[in-house]
Amino acid sequence: MNSTYRPNADLKEDIRAYWSERSKTFDQDFGHRIPEGPEFDAWANAIRAQLGDKPLKILELACGTGEVTRVLLSMGHTVTALDFSEPMLATAKVKHQGNARAYFILADAENTMEPDESYDAIVNRHLVWTLTDPAMAFADWHRVLRPDGKLLFFDGNWAGPSRLGRLALRIIAVMDRVTGASTHLDGGLGARHTEIMQRLPFSNGLSPSAVVPLLDRAGFADIEVTSQRSIARGQRDRANIRNKLRTLVYNKFVLSCTKSA
Question: How is the beta sheet containing 119-125 ordered, strand by strand?
């Protein structure tokens, strides 16, 4: 983690603009869209393993186009889905129009302005690596959770590929030269993505060792880190060879923790 940083309004606006632009094709990106079948089931099982079967009141941060929202709603939860990109949120609203258990708000995930102790759980996917002030965000998330409430997030080290991932990328590069590059790339690629990452606190990559001490200081307990292997297996089940290889590129993890009563 970069130890010298300050929250930067310009950086936040760059992040907002980047994700707003990506909203146009985001649901076509492998690794973002969660298709019905093995991948959808893998996401539901991973969430159920941490949150249980009881319907909860959930705050989903950085909901994007509402794909994880769809999984949560299918499990019977009531979901307040938050994003600070209007185009992303607009797509999610259309996707879940008419669902009485889905609520949408335009807000900053680092400063939600939601009432104290108002949610049973907070869930997010691929948000934590983008935080401009992680300590502030974790303190806010702790505040809005009820006693014994759960924080659950899915993320990874997007700053560089794993050892196996480097081999996978070399094979993908050969495939691209032979058959042409795929039209839509995953979130770990692209010059703008790289430029933004270099300005973030987790510019050197998000890892459990970097984030756990911050969660501990924010007051979270029972911190547990597991892999995303089950989700990757679900993604590979119906994927083409190029996308099967993409599931190997980055080190991804699931982190859960609890607000002590």
Answer: 102-106, 78-83, 57-61, 119-125, 145-157, 251-259, 220-227
CB 124 within 8 A of CB 156: no
Closest by alpha carbon to 2, among 218, 199, 193, 137?
A: 199
DSSP H or E stretch at residue 114: none
DSSP 6: -
**Average pLDDT, whole number, for the chain?**
92
Please classify residue 105 by burial: count the beta carbons closer than 10 Å to its beta carbon, then call 0-12 exposed, 13-18 middle and 19+ buried.
Answer: middle
Structure token digits, residue 93: 């609203």
- Cβ–Cβ under 8 Å, residues 153 and 255: yes
pTM of the entire structure?
0.92
CA distance linking residue 48 with residue 123, whole number of Å: 12
Q: Pick from 174, 180, 172: which is nearest to 243 by CA?
A: 172
Most confident of 29-33, 172-176, 220-224: 220-224
CB-count exposure of residue 1 (10 Å: 0-12, 13-18, 19+): middle
- By CB neighbour count within 10 A (0-12 exposed, 13-18 middle, 19+ buried), where does 244 fall? middle
Residue 187: pLDDT band with limits 50, 70, 90 = very low
205: how many CB neighbours lie within 10 A of its CB?
Answer: 16
Q: Say whether pLDDT at 65 is over 80.
A: yes
> What is the 3-state secondary structure of 121-161?
EEEEECCHHHCCCHHHHHHHHHHHEEEEEEEEEEEEECCCC
β-bridge mates for residue 93, sequence order: none
